[in-house]
Amino acid sequence: MREEIELHGIVLSSGLQGDYDKRLVILTKERGRITAFASGVRRGTNPLQSKTQMFVMGSFKLIPGRNSYRLTGIDVDEYFHELTADIDAYCYASYFCEVMGFFTHEGMVATDYLNLLYVSMNALKKGIVSKKLIRCVYEIKLMDVFGQGIQSFSCPVCGNEELTYVFDASAGGILCKDCLKKAKAPLTLSETARYTIQYINSAPLGGLYNFSVTDEVTEEIQRVTKQFMDVYVDKKFKAADIIDSLQ
Ligand SMILES: [Zn+2]
Predict the structure, then answer these.
(1) Which of 59, 136, 156, 175 has the fewest Cβ atoms within 10 Å of its own Cβ atom?
(2) How far, in Å, is the centroid of ligand 1 from the Cα of 186?
(3) 27 and 117 in contact (C-beta within 8 Å)?
(4) String of DSSP letters for the chain
(5) Which residues are found with C-beta within 5 Å of the ion, ligand 1?
(6) Structural contact between residues 121 and 209, judged by C-beta atoms closer than 8 angstroms
(7) Mind listing the pLDDT tens digit for each residue in 35-79?
(8) Residue 1 confidence (pLDDT)
(9) How far is the CA of 158 from the centre of ligand 1 (A)?
(10) Low-confidence spans in the chain with pLDDT less than 70
């Protein structure tokens, strides 16, 4: 029998399996996105019943198998109950988990991804920054961590650091004067919007949600992230459709 290991992470999804079991997808710091089966947890008296929910963060005790893991226990650090009690927050957090599942895979060290998810779910839980802005920040930072970030400090075409206020998704970021003609779908940004994108790109994960902007600026940044994701992410997310349908 293989030895039990302990991994730290957040449950990205939790589905039913058979009559009494659950299938979890967990983003772990140590081994990336893994699949774990929890057998018998849906029997009434099983103490793991309430811990094997989406958004639960903690230390997971697992026995590795060939393609998946068997879950034997969880020390929960945070349930994020607030995110299941509020339908809007639930939809956004579900979206964050769905997108995270797409960008991560098994066998990677996922410390930055996990920390980004944690601080973003925490921001949703606190409810100080608007959910729309949290989504923009999350998307910009996730693309950055992934290595396909919006270039906001130098021109993505020629490297010039004297930038205009024109963003172009297919060029990869904010352009300089000389490269404006290369823009396929230019978006002209306000000074605050450009600065905010630069701030998000350079801020450490712990300081990502220490600011707020007006609704107008949020909408500008939303257009930027939408165009950017459309160009670079070849996938439609179910939870994104649900968020859009709520508005
Ligand atoms: Zn340029």
Answers:
(1) 59
(2) 14
(3) yes
(4) -PPPEEEEEEEEEEEEETTTEEEEEEEETTTEEEEEEETTTTSTT-TTTTTSSTT-EEEEEEEE-SSSEEEEEEEEEE--HHHHHSHHHHHHHHHHHHHHHHH--BTS--HHHHHHHHHHHHHHHH--S-HHHHHHHHHHHHHHHHT---B-SS-TTT--S-EEEEEETTTTEEEEGGGGGG-SS-EEPPHHHHHHHHHHHHS-GGGTTS----HHHHHHHHHHHHHHHHHH-----HHHHHHHHH-
(5) 155, 157-158, 160, 176, 179
(6) no
(7) 999 999 988 888 898 899 999 999 999 999 999 999 999 999 999
(8) 62
(9) 4
(10) 1
Q: How far is the CA of 234 from the centre of ligand 1 (A)?
A: 26
pLDDT of residue 2: 75
Rounded (10°) angle between helices 87-103 and 111-126: 170
Rounded Cα distance between 29 and 109, Å, is: 6
Residue 143 CA, ligand 1 centroid: distance in Å: 21
pLDDT of residue 172: 97
- How many angstroms does the Cα of residue 192 sit away from the middle of ligand 1? 21
Residue 204 CB neighbours (<10 A): 8
Among residues 43, 60, 98, which one has the least CA distance to residue 51? 60
- How remote is the CA of residue 150 from the centroid of ligand 1, in Å? 14
What distance in angstroms lies between residue 151's CA and the mean position of ligand 1's atoms?
11
CB environment 23-37: b (16+ within 10 A), e (fewer): bbbbbbbebbbbebb
Q: How far is the CA of 180 from the centre of ligand 1 (A)?
A: 7
